[in-house]
Design a protein that fits this description.
Blueprint (H helix, E strand, L loop, with lengths): L3 E3 L6 H13 L10 H9 L6 H11 L1 E3 L10 E8 L2 E9 L4 H7 L2 E5 L8 H15 L5 E7 L3 H9 L3 E6 L2 E7 L10
Antiparallel strand pairs: 1-3, 2-3, 3-4, 4-5, 6-8, 7-8
């Protein structure tokens, strides 16, 4: 079975733990930026090893959150990129943009575990998420940003149809039409 986007599940517990160790080993938990991955590594790492802790994590941060918080967190959907019972990465789709997300964060955030990089997973994952963004969230186009030094992410965005709009500080901003059919989309 080829990799696919799924709702977060406890079925990939062991490979998820291994992936989070890979992210931690490359310093993702020490990131000065407030990425979801960095925040979750700091908040959940000690609870993930137990079945109960992992189930609580999946129940709390997985799937769709319709809550809008006072700190600017908008409703979002988190999907995992898996192959069988192997966790390969994740993608978060923000349902709307705030001023900060419009300038720097965009609608989409994604991460591929270090051992699975450079194999086309990020491109396939983003392609698979675009129809979901259109059909489930009603977004005709999505904003995807990346650091100006992140050549790999820039290539992923452009391969998925990203049209460069501008650069704000260190962030490159691209718009992608979500309503266009995407090749190899599995959700």
């Amino acid at each position: 079975m080829p990799p696919q986007l799924i709702a977060p599940t406890v079925d990939v517990h062991a490979s998820f733990l291994a992936a989070m160790e890979e992210f931690r080993a490359e310093g993702a938990d020490r990131s000065p930026r407030s990425s979801n991955l960095a925040r979750e590594l700091r908040t959940w790492r000690d609870r993930w090893p137990s079945a109960e802790g992992f189930a609580a994590y999946v129940g709390t941060v997985g799937g769709t959150s319709y809550d809008e918080r006072a700190d600017g967190v908008v409703p979002s959907t988190t999907l995992w990129w898996v192959e069988g019972d192997t966790y390969l990465g994740r993608i978060a789709l923000r349902h709307r943009l705030t001023g900060t997300l419009l300038a720097y964060g965009g609608h989409v955030g994604y991460a591929v575990r270090p051992s699975a990089r450079r194999r086309g997973h990020a491109t396939a994952m983003l392609r698979a998420a675009l129809p979901y963004a259109h059909q489930e969230l009603g977004l005709d186009r999505v904003l995807v940003t990346c650091d100006d030094t992140n050549t790999g992410s820039r290539r992923v965005i452009e391969a998925c149809g990203g049209v460069f709009e501008d650069q704000r500080d260190e962030k490159l901003r691209y718009w992608i039409h979500a309503r266009r059919p995407q090749a190899d989309a599995h959700v």
